[in-house]
């Protein structure tokens, strides 16, 4: 039942943009390395840039596996599931890169996210993904679940941080500057924002 798409548009784009949750999967090149799978949410933190490009905001957290894997090899898969309505699963397989706060493209990319204030979330980077393969599948076994609301815990936790305290927080974490497998993660000290 799976179908391959040339572009992220129409019904496919609408489906992706309506989902409150998606997942990212990355891995290092080493066959002994750790595969990473992360849930992503927060309304307004994901955008379809064009028919072949998507992006999401990478907020403060206690590790940086996705960033490390993208810096090493760029491979990433994003997945959305329909937890309400007709069953559907959409995957975007592609090449991604973290665009850090001191990158000249950062300010322009941030303009794609007008509905979210990234400041209280400790924005570290914008992850840009160029789609190479876009597919959907049935999703018949995905359970029906109701979305209630975004949690406010992340914003409440990181709203009190500034760049200096974020640097301290990241420095104290074992897997922010480097991944579980020792790959370079988030550049520290945190690059200053160009915004």
Descriptive terms for the model:
single chain, 195 residues, alpha+beta, Pnp Oxidase, Chain A, 8-stranded antiparallel β-sheet, 5 helices
Question: Would you give an account of this structure?
Answer:
The chain is an alpha+beta fold and 195 residues long. The chain has one domain (3-172): Pnp Oxidase, Chain A (Roll). It has helices spanning 10-18, 65-72, 106-110, 153-158, 163-172, and strands at residues 3-5, 22-26, 36-40, 46-50, 53-58, 75-81, 89-100, 125-137. Strands 1, 2, 3, 4, 5, 6, 7 and 8 form an eight-stranded antiparallel beta sheet that branches. The longest helix is centred in the last third of the chain and has 10 residues, at 163-172. The radius of gyration is 17 Å and the shape is globular. It starts with a strand and ends in a 23-residue tail after the last helix.
The biggest beta sheet is recorded as: 8 strands, antiparallel
Q: How much helix, percentage-wise, in residues?
A: 10-25%
Distance between the termini: 45 Å
Structural class by secondary-structure content: alpha+beta
Stated plainly, the CATH topology is called Pnp Oxidase, Chain A
* Low-confidence region ranges: none
Total domain count: 1
Strand content: 25-35%
**The CATH class:** Mainly Beta
Overall radius of gyration: 17 Å
